[in-house]
Amino acid sequence: MRTDRSIIYHIYPLGFCAVEPRNGFASEPVNRISKISGWLPHIQSLGCDTLLLGPVWESSAHGYDTADFLRLDRRLGSNDDFRAVAEAVHAAGMNLVLDGVFNHVGRDFWAFRDVVEKRENSPYKDWFTVNFSLNNGFNDGLCYHAWEGCEDLVTLNLAKPEVRRCLLDAVRFWIEAFGIDGLRLDVAYCLNMDFMRELRDLTAGLKPGFGIFEKEFGFDGFVMTDWTSSDTCDIVKAVDAGNGWITPGGMEDTQPMQIVKGVEDGKIDRKRLEKSVYRMFRTVLKFS
Questions:
Q1: Which pTM does this prediction carry?
Q2: What residues contact residue 122 under an 8 Å CB cut-off, 6+ apart?
Q3: Distance of CA 53 to the CA centre of its chain
Q4: Looking only at Cα atoms, what is the longest distance across the chain?
Q5: Is the separation of the CB atoms in 21 and 64 below 8 Å?
Q6: Which of 149, 252, 261, 263 is the most exposed place for a label (fewest CB within 10 A)?
Q7: pLDDT digits over 120-150, tens only?
Q8: 180 near 168, Cβ under 8 Å?
Q9: What is the Cα–Cα distance from 288 to 283, expressed in whole angstroms?
C-alpha cells in the first residue's frame, strides 16, 4: 500500500457494532462485524482507499486488553466472519489495516492467567514483570508492571524472545489468513526496538508494501525521531499540543487528553480550538 498517499477511514468496531461492554468468553460468536461491509460504498465515496479497524482481536472489554491474538472477538463474530469482511474490503480495491496492540495484554490473556494460577512455577512468569512479594488492586497476591499504571493492561516483557515470537506469529497469521495490508501500532513509544525491527523484517518478507503506522505523543514539540527510521515503520503520527498537530507522512490524529492538556497549559489557543471543532462537526454533518 502507498502509505504516503493513502486516505484512511477509521472504525472502532466494538463501538460501531454496539457490542456488550464485557466479554464473557462463554457465548458463541455473533456476526456483527459484517455491518462494516455495508459501509464500504460510503467510505469509498469519501475518497478513502484504506480502512483502519480498531482492535478486533479477542479481548476482555475495550479491545486494548487482548485475551487471544489469534481469534476475532466473539462479540464481533468468528474468524470466518472477519474473512468475509476482509475479502469485501479487498474486492472494493481498498487496503485493510488493523490496530496492533503489542505492548500489553488484558488480565484474561492465557499466559497471564497461568502466572496468576501457578505463580513462580508458571513457565510464563518472565513474559511479564512480576513481583510475587507484593499485591495489586485485584488481590492476586502479586504485583506486575501495567501500562501507565492501569492494572487491566498487563505489560509484556518484549525483551524475551518467546514473547516477541508469540506476537510475530500472530502477525503472520493475520497476514496469511486474511491478507491484511498494514498495522497501526498502539503506544508505539513503549515498544522494544528489537521487536520493531523483527516486525518490519517479517512483514516485508511476507507482504512487500505492508504498512506500519505508529503514534507518538509530544506535548512540547518532542517527537521520538528514532521511530521514523525506515527499518521500523512507514509513518509516525505525532501529536504536538504546542503547535497543533504534527503529521509526518500526511496522517492526522489527536485525542481528547492531549487537547485538554494543551488548553490547560496555554499551548493551544481556545478560540483556534473552537474553530477547529466547528469545522470538524460541519464536515461530519455534511456526510451524515
A1: 0.80
A2: 114, 115
A3: 8
A4: 59
A5: no
A6: 149
A7: 999 999 999 999 999 999 999 999 999 999 9
A8: no
A9: 9
